[in-house]
Q: What sequence folds into this?
């Protein structure tokens, strides 16, 4: 197994773990603060609206986080596809830049709240991005 494959697998695993942890925290924030004594005193229509709002909030949060994290934990798959020539240089470059943007946003977005924990967890991903930079800027004449 090459160095890029090892780093890619580590980056993928860490990305998926962070994704699921953030999903669990988001779901808890959406659901649990609203299960209080206030709901016990609500009318039926308000309670149904509250439940529908929570379900929609969970669905929207899931899709937003998935759109944000998919470029991060899917980079390893895209690298393997590029090495097998299943992706063109242009397609890989778009996915690589998307992954870079999402990982930078994630690393900097949570740096204040977690005192750099998210940035430390993203180190394998940043190394993977650096190591695969040459794949994004390879000669387009040799690689379709």
A:
């Amino acid at each position: 197994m090459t160095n890029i494959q090892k780093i890619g697998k580590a980056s993928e695993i860490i990305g998926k773990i962070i994704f699921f942890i953030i999903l669990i925290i988001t779901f808890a924030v959406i659901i649990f603060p609203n299960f209080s004594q206030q709901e016990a005193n609500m009318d039926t229509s308000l309670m149904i609206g509250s439940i529908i709002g929570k379900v929609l909030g969970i669905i929207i949060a899931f899709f937003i986080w998935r759109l944000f994290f998919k470029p991060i934990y899917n980079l390893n798959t895209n690298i393997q596809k590029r090495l097998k020539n299943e992706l063109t240089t242009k397609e890989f470059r778009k996915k690589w830049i998307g992954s870079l943007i999402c990982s930078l946003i994630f690393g900097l977005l949570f740096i204040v709240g977690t005192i750099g924990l998210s940035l430390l967890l993203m180190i394998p991903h940043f190394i993977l991005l650096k190591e695969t930079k040459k794949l994004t800027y390879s000669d387009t004449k040799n690689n379709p």
About this structure: The two ends are 25 Å apart (CA to CA). The chain has a mean pLDDT of 76. DSSP finds nine helices and no strands in the chain.
